[in-house]
Write a structure and sequence with these properties.
This protein is about 80% helix and about 0% strand. With about 425 residues, it is mostly helical.
Length: about 425
């Protein structure tokens, strides 16, 4: 059986899927993460009541546990994909994601449901992490950033429509059916990948899965100052975004009283990220990913200070239209940063792409979870804690990049 499988992989490896199908497939594979998050957001109130969650901010663990599983899983799948190939590693992850979805579906206790979310996160780390390595196998540098931007453009359709999908399922079938939908989509993803995507890692380039090789590759990642700094910056930017994600249901449905209109407003801000990713795919080939990322980071910092000023002036409760306007500009910057920061961090590490994607993704996610959780738990019914979090994390990011550029300039002198 294994022999026949490898023969099929090797025979398929001589060609590639077209760029359009490749972008769609990678976006679908990576979107399982966003789908697992955003489709659940409208169900928070119903889940909290059904599973007897009493703490005001405790329901945010539905998001945080999935991200913790994602961070843990990413350390495993990259080295595994370097050893057995990209496709088998993704298939293992999807299988675990399905098991986690089924556990959450049948849970009668909040802690059991959270265990299912943790397993979902460990599983979804497979397609999320290995897809980046698979993309790196085919593209590099600004071309990789361009392809990542196209993927992010398709990928961002999920946050736009997933809350509406979750809301629709809630109306007709209840929150448990959302997990059944996850299972169906995961099976479809596994079938598409297995039938249409050739293996991108030749058998001669595979590395045995040993702790020594993993440690060696890990040292290569952590020894590169550019990779380290932009991984930390990605964690800070993602942490700011995750603080919004953790509290978005509370902000829109409770603070602003939007009820079932929540998916519309949530999706409107997601459009900004997608629009930025689409423009980034064009601009990065002309201006370069470093220039775009640095400018977007400075602009995001300025907008974060504006966000804080607005929140402070209105005592944490600015008009909805003003919050949306500022949020649209902020998330535009985030859309530019998401694709470029990862590509910059990965650029020097093509020779260990799988492990590099794992380490970078895991550190970014763990940092984002910790920061996003701390800011989210500080939510008190006003926007001030979120605004303070955005300012703090963007300022740290700007200082990190400035220090890196200063050090690199001194090395060249």
């Amino acid at each position: 059986m294994p022999g026949r499988y490898w023969m099929k992989v090797d025979s398929a490896a001589s060609g590639h899927t077209g760029l359009g199908e490749f972008v769609a497939l990678m976006a679908f594979s990576m979107s399982l993460v966003a789908l697992s998050i955003d489709a659940m957001l409208p169900a928070f109130s119903e889940m909290a009541a059904d599973l007897q969650v009493t703490g005001q901010n405790d329901i945010q663990l539905v998001i945080s546990l999935l991200f913790i599983g994602l961070a843990i899983g990413q350390l495993f799948y990259g080295p595994l994909s370097d050893a057995i190939g990209r496709k088998p590693a993704i298939h293992i992850g999807i299988f675990l994601f399905i098991l986690g979805s089924l556990l959450s579906l049948v849970s009668q206790d909040y802690h059991v449901m959270l265990a299912g979310r943790l397993l979902q996160g460990i599983g979804v780390a497979g397609p999320r992490t290995v897809s980046v390595a698979l993309i790196r196998d085919r593209f590099q540098g600004s071309e990789m950033a361009r392809v990542m931007s196209f993927i992010m453009t398709v990928f961002i359709l999920v946050p736009i429509f997933a809350p509406a999908l979750g809301q629709t399922i809630l109306i007709f079938a209840g929150w448990r059916t959302i997990f059944a939908a996850f299972v169906v989509l995961a099976v479809a993803n596994m079938a598409w990948l297995g039938l249409r995507q050739p293996e991108t890692l030749d058998r001669v380039n595979r590395k045995p899965f040993t702790l020594r090789n993993v440690y060696t590759a890990f040292r290569m990642v952590t020894a590169n100052s550019t990779t380290v700094v932009y991984t930390l910056v990605a964690g800070c930017v993602s942490g700011a975004f995750l603080s919004y994600l953790n509290t978005s249901q509370q902000i829109f449905q409770l603070q602003y009283g939007l009820g079932r209109l929540f998916p519309i407003y949530f999706g409107a801000l997601a459009v900004s990220v997608g629009f930025a990713s689409l423009l980034n795919g064009r601009m990065v080939m002309r201006f370069g990913m470093h220039s775009l990322a640095n400018r977007a980071l400075v602009l995001m910092t300025a907008l974060s200070w504006l966000f804080l000023a607005i929140a402070w002036y209105f005592d944490g409760h600015p008009p909805l239209w003003l919050f949306m306007l500022n949020g649209f500009a902020l998330f535009f910057c985030i859309g530019v940063l998401f694709g470029n920061l990862n590509a910059i961090a990965m650029e020097p590490l093509g020779h260990v792409a799988g492990t590099a994607a794992s380490v970078i993704g895991s550190v970014t996610t763990l940092l984002a979870v910790a920061l996003g959780f701390l800011i989210g738990q500080a939510y008190d019914g006003s926007l001030l804690p979120i605004a303070v979090g955005f300012v703090s994390l963007t300022m740290i990011s700007v200082l990190l990049v400035a220090r890196l550029r200063s050090n690199l300039l001194m090395e060249r002198m």
